[in-house]
Automatic annotation (TrEMBL):
One of its GO terms (molecular function) is flavin adenine dinucleotide binding. The keyword NADP applies. Belongs to the FAD-binding monooxygenase family. Keywords: FAD, Flavoprotein, Monooxygenase, NADP, Oxidoreductase. Transmembrane segments: none annotated. The keyword Chloroplast does not apply. Signal peptide: none annotated. It holds the Pfam family FMO-like. Its cofactor is FAD. This is Cyclohexanone monooxygenase.
Length: 527
């Protein structure tokens, strides 16, 4: 049996969150190691390499805000693809030296807390054991892929690929391809492969309210000017908006605007592209059905205009009657999805309910992930009472400040359950939470505190707040939304993100810290 390795902090995952933790915990003089299941950096950007995969947060704010890192890095596009994102992580490594503190091919399977010594004991799939005072879970929102229980899937003779396990040698040129799923992943992949395959059949259960991306090449000279004049302001500004992006919700109620004013407002957001028409629109979109109907009607008109001679396709992609309110399932960004790429869409299934059988060389499963909680619950994490967190959360996720949980001391997660995670730009929430955790650890070291754990009372109050905020809006009106934990059979439906926006979330976190970490119990070192 190998010797136990001892650290101050063990971080699980080497995406944006894990790297931010490592870079900044080092500055406190702590010993830190990242345990990473993959063989290189990047987290979601290491694992997701399907054709067309790219980020849907607009740069320059989808990157680390540290000037040391943005000063010498230039993106080629506003919405870079996975290859460029992977190159970015390599650049960060060259600049700061990340990999020397990452153990790759190290999937953590269990984490057990020992209350007698205030230490976590972690075990990897291959049996190595690690011990640390703190555990930082940076496992991302979409690290556990989901394949529905399709009858007969194992009897399919062609290739089957889930999008997050894309093989490097997959050539779809001239192939007959079927794709199940039209979420963000499905839409990206469909528009990319449609021109090269012989035939593409898309199996759509629910239409995606996709928005125009309006991709732009970045001019290096203009970017340099922006760096000199505005970058630091842009990074501060992203902490002040609901979504951590640069656009923000407009407080004016939709119906207070005249029809003309509203149309011009919508046109402006539509032309700006990206998420402007969603988290840059009238804020009551998420609360008022009437307001939402206005947004949907505009979106439907715009989409139908792009497929003018196909009434049947119009009804499939942008139905007259909305299947759910606009924006309560995450819209995605598209570049040519609604044009001529779709040859055939059939209802759910491979042998469809009308008896038609579809034959393919390759079947693509763009069926998503056990979103938000899957990365954490797939590790057997046991705290003070020995109960696995997966079991605790069976009746619903309970957290304090969307980053810690009662009975699991010295354990934090970043960009996970009940944080603003998927309602926000990744790096914004990640840096906000990561900085808070680092400051908390610094405080504990200064005050000789050996463990910190949320009280049940504080956890219940916070989780209740998330539930109440979630129930006040239209989020629950989409039957299969992963925002509401409804995409995985058996998962308890509930609002999984903090739905009050970044500034409100930051205030709650700061209030706790400024009041001596209110809502947490702390234990001092005995000697
Ligand atoms: P997803 O949004 O969960 O979409 C899964 C798709 O599979 C949906 O269309 C779903 O239909 C369908 N599906 C699931 N089970 C099915 C079944 N049994 N039968 C038929 N269809 C079924 O997953 P995703 O597209 O991978 O995206 C997940 C999230 O990852 C995104 O929302 C985003 O946050 C992130 N992502 C981001 C980017 C980016 O930044 N550019 C790209 C890709 C993904 P229903 O809609 O009816 O449930």
């Amino acid at each position: 049996m190998s010797e136990t390795q001892e650290y101050d902090v063990l971080v699980v995952g080497s995406g944006f969150a894990g790297i931010h933790q490592l870079m900044n915990l080092r500055k406190l003089g702590l010993t830190v190691k990242i345990l990473e299941a993959g063989v290189d950096l990047g987290g979601t950007w290491y694992h997701n390499t399907y054709p067309g995969c790219r980020v849907d947060s607009m740069n320059p704010v989808y990157q680390f805000s540290d000037p040391e890192l943005w000063r010498d890095w230039s993106w080629s596009e506003r919405y870079p693809g996975w290859k460029e994102l992977q190159e970015y992580f390599q650049y960060v490594d060259r600049k700061v030296g990340i990999k020397r503190d990452v153990l790759f091919s190290s999937r953590v399977v269990s984490a057990v807390w020992d209350d007698s010594v205030d230490r976590w004991m972690l075990t990897t799939e291959d049996g190595r054991v690690f011990r640390s005072q703190f555990l930082s879970l940076c496992t991302g929102v979409g690290s556990k892929h989901y394949i529905p229980d399709f009858k007969g899937l194992d009897t399919f003779k062609g290739q089957v690929h889930h999008t997050s396990k894309w093989p490097t040698d997959c050539d779809l040129q001239g192939k007959k391809v079927g794709i199940i799923g039209t979420g963000a992943t499905g839409v990206q992949l469909i528009q990319e492969i449609a021109p090269i395959v012989e035939h593409l059949t898309v199996f759509q259960r629910t239409p995606n309210y996709a928005l125009p991306m309006r991709q732009q090449k970045i001019n290096p000279e203009e970017d340099e000017k922006l760096k000199n004049n505005l970058y630091s302001i842009l990074f501060s500004r992203r902490l002040q908006t609901f979504s951590g992006l640069l656009c923000d919700l407009d407080p004016k109620p939709t119906l207070d605007a005249t029809p003309e004013e509203r149309t011009l407002f919508y046109e402006d957001k539509w032309e700006k592209g990206g998420f402007h028409f969603w988290v840059g629109s009238y804020g009551d979109l998420f609360f008022s059905q009437q307001a939402n109907d206005e947004a949907y009607a505009f979106w439907r008109k715009k989409v139908r205009e792009r497929i003018p001679d196909h009434p049947e396709l119009q009804e499939k992609l942008a139905p007259m009657k909305p299947p759910h309110p606009f924006g309560v399932k995450r819209p995605c960004l598209e570049q040519r999805y609604f044009e001529d790429v779709i040859e055939e869409i059939t209802p759910n299934g491979l042998k469809t309910s009308d008896g038609t059988e579809h034959s393919f060389d390759v079947l693509v499963l763009a069926t998503g992930f056990d979103m938000v909680t899957g990365g954490i619950t797939s590790i057997d994490i046991r705290g003070q009472d020995g109960v696995p967190i997966k079991e605790k959360w069976e009746e619903g996720v309970r957290t304090y400040l969307g980053m810690a949980s009662a009975t699991y001391p010295n354990m934090f997660w970043i960009y996970g359950p009940q944080s603003p995670c998927s309602f926000s730009n990744g790096p914004t929430t990640i840096e906000l939470t990561s900085d808070w955790i680092i400051e908390c650890i610094r405080y504990m070291k200064d005050k000789r505190i050996s463990s910190i754990v949320p009280t049940e009372e504080a956890q219940n109050a916070y989780s209740e707040q998330v539930d109440v905020l979630g129930a006040a809006a239209l989020w629950s009106k989409a039957a299969t939304s992963w925002y509401m934990a409804c995409n995985i059979p058996g998962k308890k439906p509930q609002m999984l993100q903090f739905p009050g926006g970044i500034p409100a979330y930051a205030k709650l976190c700061n209030d706790s810290a400024e009041n001596g970490y209110k809502g947490f119990d702390m234990k001092r070192f005995s000697a």
